[in-house]
Amino acid sequence: MLIAYVAALFGISRIILGKWLPPTSEKGLWFYSGLAALLLGNLLVAPFFTKPADALANAVAALIALLAVDVLSSQQYTGFDRFLWYAATAYAIFVLASSIISIALKDSPGQSRRKFAKALFILCGSAGNPRAVFSAVFMFALIAFHRQSSNEYVGIGLAWFLLVGLRPLEGAMELGQRLWDIIKARPLSLRYGEVVAHQTPGIVLVRLEEDSRYTFGTPVVARAEDGKVGLAMALDHIGYVDARWLRALHLSIDEPERKKLEARHPAPGSAAVVGSGMSLEDIGLSLASVPEWGKRSLLIGLVAPETSMTQLRMDVVRTDLDLEAGRLLEVRIAGTDVLCQLMDGINKEEILFQKNTRGYVLAHAKMIGHWNADKARFETVRWVPHLNSPVYLVDCCPATPLRDAVGHFPGTDYPVTVDVDSLVTHNAAILGILGSGKSCLALELVERMIAQKIKVICFDLTDQYAQELAVHRVPDEESKVVDELRGIGNAGKDKVNQNVEEGGSALAFKKKVHEQLAGFLGPSKANYLRIYNPVTFEVWRQDSKPYQGKASMASLTPTEVTRIFTEAALEVAQSLGMTDRARCCLVFEEAHSIIPEWSATASEGDRSATNGTAKAILQGRKFGLGCLVITQRTANVTKSILDQCNTIFALRVFDATGMEFLKNYVGEDCANVLSTLADRHAVVFGKASSCRDPVLVRLNDRDVFLRQFRGATSAPAATQQAAESGPG
Fold it and tell me: Which residue from 637, 532, 533, 515 is spatially nearest to 572, judged by alpha carbons?
């Protein structure tokens, strides 16, 4: 454009003055002032903005041109010519003085001086631009030196108006550019904002223009971390400083797609600019292979600092997706999709600048692992995700009931299964308050044991097991067995013996229990369930030396009766030999009543009995004997047994002792959610679980489990065989 304008000036000189190069006298001042305005100003020195230093240079050049003309001493110039010269010179001096003062006062300590310097700065940018300064020189030259010739006066004035005033080439270029943008749909036609920071890795901060608008997932073009043009996705607005700040996530587009983007959108300059109005289809850009783009509807947050191999910290970037404890999240680690379970969240605040703050939610989740569909279980991934990696919410879907699953992850179809053998041999506990679903889970686990031909002895104070597991019972056999034990126990009230140990019915009761359990646990016995209520047995123990044929007698407590059964079960299991498989499970329902903690016992006898039961449980694993403890009062159950429970089902718990005990098993994050668990939800952890870490599980509903499980269980046939074989 500069060359075209200079050529036009030479052409006008040839047409009007008859010479290609105007004279260096007064007749050529119009030409050289116009050339200076174009050459020094509009197109080279200050095409966009005039600084005080530029205004100073323009004013000096204009004064040199004006002082070179001898207007004051020459008689040929009228008073009007002198007036014009004075006006142009005064204007140039004013610009010169303003620029000097602005430069001198810009760093002044006084506030009023700085305000004055800023006002002069703005004035220099307007009055000191090349077009304004050299137009004053041109107008003086045109009127003073060419008004005698109408051709020169009109021709030169019209040329200046067309070339300098209208700027036809700039206007044509801008119009052509706008038309070209419409035809080719160039996406970077509008300024969107300025990149002000990179949060390595993967995040770019954009200071938005005042009129810029965005929604989550808007694609934006910005300089990537390698300095080349890249594509990012708008996340959230993180606060105000001097403008709105947008946080965007860089997309990992491959090299061919990046070259397509770069061909249409060259890398921004030193101040990176983000584009808006972009049409990915118009430039043939496909993001089908970019995971962040394809899963953007489920993107919920970014990996936050202090994330470890077991704990995920997540900066939540969206509020339009439903979050609750137990929901599954997905994050990529070393090229593998790893699932995490949301456990807790906390409100956080950070200072952005001075008193500007940003509030956000920091979520805590437990790393679960990579889902192996072939093995139908989670496999641990032993590394951490990169900082600022996207975290996705696993989409909700209805769970499909599976025969082998005790439940599923809330809102998903991922099942959680248990190894029944490990559940028994390494002991298990179900802990939770009244009405949280303990008994339903215990009944389900008992049926799973029976299905795998594991003998189950239930100590039930509620009689619920007898009703719910009626399909697995042999009523006539159970009645006969219980009646035998009751008869032996009741008869001991008046049985006094010189040897205190042999008085009462305790020894006979133990012998009969051993006999019954030997028959029940024998491999030929087809019945797999036996239910006892320790409260219903009246067993007597001689408590003193006899005197005149009489002695004081004491009735055994349910805790002491439970000890008899437990020790008898261990003795029978030992007689059958060692095994790695589960052989028998003792189910302690309402465990706080029959295996109490020493501080919760009513007598010394209960303490001794609890220790005896615990000792038997500790010795039972090698012989296939284990236990299932169910209680709503963790503090009142002996820790000698609870500490040996390798698998824990923790339902809703409130008491501090229970929370503290479970914290040692499942960790603080999981323990913190126990008090807010919904019904039929539990934190599951241990050797028998298909998940190697504590997980929050939605347990099976009782009716759903029965439909899925009992149809394939041959309980009625087993019951019939047991009835035919007679009592054990």
Answer: 515
pLDDT of residue 537: 92
Q: Tell me how far CA of residue 384 lies from CA of 279, 363, 371, 380, 511, in angstroms.
A: 36, 16, 17, 11, 59
Q: How far is CA 39 from the centre of its chain?
A: 58
Of 37-51, 479-493, 703-717, which has the strongest mean pLDDT?
479-493
Contacts of 516 (CB under 8 A, 6+ apart): 481, 484, 485, 727, 728
- The residue among 629, 641, 627, 565 whose CA lies nearest residue 598 is 641
Query: Distance between CA 530 and CA 238 in Å, rounded?
Result: 64
Domains of the chain: 2-173 (no CATH), 190-286 (2.40.10.170), 295-396 (2.40.30), 420-723 (3.40.50.300)
The structure tokens listed for 630 are: 């169910």
pTM of structure? 0.66
Most confident of 266-280, 541-555, 698-712: 698-712
Is residue 554 helix, strand or coil?
Answer: strand
pLDDT digits (tens, 9 = 90+) for 424-440: 999 999 999 888 889 89
Cα–Cα dist 220/431, whole Å? 52
The predicted pLDDT at position 85 comes to: 79
Enter the DSSP assignment of 418.
Answer: B
Q: Which residues pair with 587 in a beta bridge?
A: 458, 628
Which amino acid is present at 46? Answer: A
- The DSSP output letter for 188 is G
Phi, psi (degrees; rounded to nearest 5) at 234: -65, 135
With bands split at pLDDT 50, 70 and 90, how would you rate the model's confidence at 187?
very low
Tell me phi and psi for residue 630, to 5 degrees: -125, 125
Q: Is the pLDDT of residue 267 over 70?
A: no
293 CB burial (10 A radius; 0-12, 13-18, 19+): buried
Are 257 and 285 in contact by the 8 Å Cβ rule? The answer is yes
Among the listed ranges 47-56, 72-81, 650-659, 666-675, which one has the minimum average pLDDT value? 72-81
What are phi and psi for residue 560, nearest 5 degrees? -70, -35
For the sheet with 647-650, list strands across it: 415-417, 405-408, 695-699, 681-686, 647-650, 428-431, 625-631, 584-588, 455-459, 529-532
How far from the centroid of its chain's Cα atoms is residue 654's Cα? Answer: 28
Give yes or no for a contact between 64 and 115, defined as CB atoms under 8 angstroms apart: no
pLDDT for res 623: 95
Q: Which two tokens stand for residue 645?
A: 């429970």
Please, are residues 487 and 512 in contact by the beta-carbon 8 Å criterion?
A: no
Residues forming a β-bridge with 689: 418
CB-neighbour burial class of residue 252 (10 A; exposed 0-12, middle 13-18, buried 19+)? middle
Q: What is the mean pLDDT of residues 310-329?
A: 88
Model pLDDT, residue 627: 96
Q: Dump the DSSP string for 508-536.
A: HHHHHHHHHHHHHHSTT----EEEE-GGG
Q: Which of 306, 380, 297 is nearest to 336 (CA)?
A: 380
Q: Is the pLDDT of residue 279 over 50?
A: yes
DSSP state of 634: G
Q: Please state which of the ranges 42-46, 275-279, 437-441, 606-610 shows the lowest mean pLDDT.
A: 275-279
Quickly list DSSP for 558-577. HHHHHHHHHHHHHHHHHHT-
Distance, CA of 343 to CA of 693 (rounded, Å):
13
DSSP characters over 13-76: HHHHHS-SS--SSGGGHHHHHHHHIIIIIIIII-SS---HHHHHHHHHHHHHHHHTS--SS-TT
Mean pLDDT across the chain: 81
Q: Cβ–Cβ contacts within 10 Å for residue 79, how many?
A: 7
pLDDT above 50 for 271:
no
